[in-house]
């Protein structure tokens, strides 16, 4: 069963007070935007293989998401992964195996489609974010729709690249965090998603 259109369109407001912090990063990732790296798809495949070996039959899907999944799009040098499991609430079944595979458990957001967040242990040759979701997460669908729209829409791909560069520069000048960088892009992301939803017939 896939998420409904209504679920995909439903906005989510992140409330920091509801985020359950498990651990903190030992090193903050760089907010520097770099030119597209042809190695990014292979890096994802390496991460995917490691996760598959760690979790096996628990996995429903593993998807490359975020800007590094869009060829030709500048991005932070971070591989983002959407990992859909049969039961994201059953932490006993997957947290330890993921940690043994090199991923550090940072936080859980139970009210956001049972989201759990892991990062590649530091230091590493490159950085990885692993987002764990339960079955039929609307957020996974939104990520896929956004990625697929950018793949086929050069104008919005160029717009998003411009906004990413501007947000990164403003964040660096202000000395802000990666969360502030993300907030600076949010309006543009929503504008692009609206065009993608309209193209799919989800809205008029």
Automatic annotation (TrEMBL):
Keywords: Kinase, Transferase. InterPro entries: GrpB/CoaE (IPR007344), NT_sf (IPR043519). SUPFAM superfamilies: Nucleotidyltransferase (SSF81301). One of its GO terms (molecular function) is kinase activity. It comes from the Eukaryota. It holds the Pfam family GrpB. This is Grpb/dephospho-CoA kinase. It comes from Aspergillus pseudoustus.
